[in-house]
Design a protein that fits this description.
The strands form three sheets. The protein has a five-stranded antiparallel sheet. It has a five-stranded mixed sheet with strand order 7-9-10-12-11, covered by helices on one side. It starts with 11 loop residues before the first helix and ends in a 7-residue tail after the last strand. A hairpin with a 2-residue loop joins strand 3 and strand 4. The chain is of the alpha+beta class. It is elongated, with a radius of gyration of 36 Å. The chain has seven helices and twelve strands. It has three domains: 69 residues, PAS domain (Beta-Lactamase, 2-Layer Sandwich); 70 residues, Helix Hairpins (Orthogonal Bundle); 150 residues, 2-Layer Sandwich (Heat Shock Protein 90).
């Protein structure tokens, strides 16, 4: 490599000045390079931090260039591939449906970039609909309650005077009224909430009430009911616990009715464990259609269901500080009531 040489015609002082200037320029160049490296590192760190921030966001996020191309997005946005095609970036806030879910889409702008965020509000919308349906159902239940009560009194009076050949007609009216009254009671209880009054209950009393309810329930097939309730006592609200058990029994009856078999069985068993009183309800009917939505209010797959039986049963059990487990193979519903602490409720 050729060494840098100063012209021979330059004076010594000029040479020294020029050398100092060159050294200063080289030093400044090194400093600029160091600052560039530092800035580049800081920029990369900032970019990485921004990516981490948008990645932990629960909503989908896109950052668009001026031409509409994607500059940056997170993994939630990747899951919603295609949603961006339905977004109108001229609207600052809008709701849209995509793949059977609801999203709240918000648009903001920063210089040449457009930021699009999409928040899944499906559950929020579902709760709003349920609240609205609950209010409407409670209002209708109040309106229906009085005339149904009057009809029940008239039917009770009629049953004492009816001729034997018309007895089946009156009995069917009674069963239909029983069903309507249960729907009204369930609807009002669902809308108001459950507040149990805990007292000691002989299991024989629960069995008697369940048998009476089954006799008032309408079904066509020959169903054998197997009750296995020992002579023991549990602490619970008698009316509420009986209602919860009856809802599961009715659900079992409907499952048998929907099966292709000419007859069926329903088992209601009690089991005492170390910490829990367990009630098992099983049936030989059709399998559960969708066990993920069993306890969703107003959802039912049955032609004569109102979608509140399972929900209300869960409310009652949870009000007793208990829980419900569901088994699909074999098909079984189990109510777990804690043995300790019930007296204090």
């Amino acid at each position: 490599m050729n060494e840098f040489k100063l012209p021979s015609t330059m004076q010594e002082g000029e040479k020294q000045t020029l050398l100092h200037q060159l050294e200063s320029l080289i030093e400044q160049t090194y400093n600029v390079e160091k600052e560039y490296i530092t800035l580049t590192s800081s920029y990369n760190q900032l970019q990485s931090l921004i990516k981490q921030i948008i990645e932990v966001l629960p909503n989908a996020l896109w950052v668009l260039n001026e031409d509409g191309s994607i500059f940056l997005h997170n993994s939630e946005a990747e899951k919603l591939d295609g949603l961006l095609n339905f977004v109108d970036t001229n609207n600052k806030e809008t709701e849209l449906s995509f793949k059977e879910r609801s999203f709240l889409v918000k648009i903001s702008r920063s210089e040449e970039k457009t930021i699009v965020s999409a928040t899944d509000i499906t559950e929020q919308k579902r709760k709003e609909r349920l609240a609205s349906m609950g209010q409407m159902a409670a209002h209708l239940a109040h309106e229906i309650r009085n005339p149904i009560g009057s009809i029940a009194l008239l039917v009770s009076s009629l049953s004492r005077r009816v001729v034997p050949k018309n007895r089946p007609i009156v009995d069917e009216i009674k069963r239909s009224l029983f069903r309507v009254e249960r729907i009204i009671k369930s609807t009002l209880m669902y809308s108001k909430g459950v507040d149990p009054t805990i007292r000691p209950i002989p299991l024989q009393q629960l069995e008697k009430e369940c048998r009476a309810a089954v006799e008032s329930y309408t079904y066509i097939k020959s169903i054998t009911f197997h009750y296995d309730f020992p002579e023991t006592t549990v602490y619970a609200d008698a009316n509420l616990l009986a209602l919860a058990l009856q809802n599961f029994i009715f659900n079992a009856i409907d499952a048998v009715e929907e099966s292709e078999e000419e007859s069926g069985d329903v088992w209601i068993r009690f089991e005492e464990c170390n910490e829990f009183f367990n009630f098992h309800i099983e049936d030989s009917g059709v399998a559960l259609p969708d066990d993920t939505r069993l306890f969703e209010a107003f959802y039912t797959t049955k032609t004569k269901g109102n979608g509140l039986g399972m929900v209300l049963a869960r409310q009652i059990v949870e009000a007793h500080r208990g829980s419900i487990t569901v088994s699909t193979s074999p098909k079984r519903f189990t109510i777990h009531l804690p043995k300790k602490g019930q007296e204090a409720l």
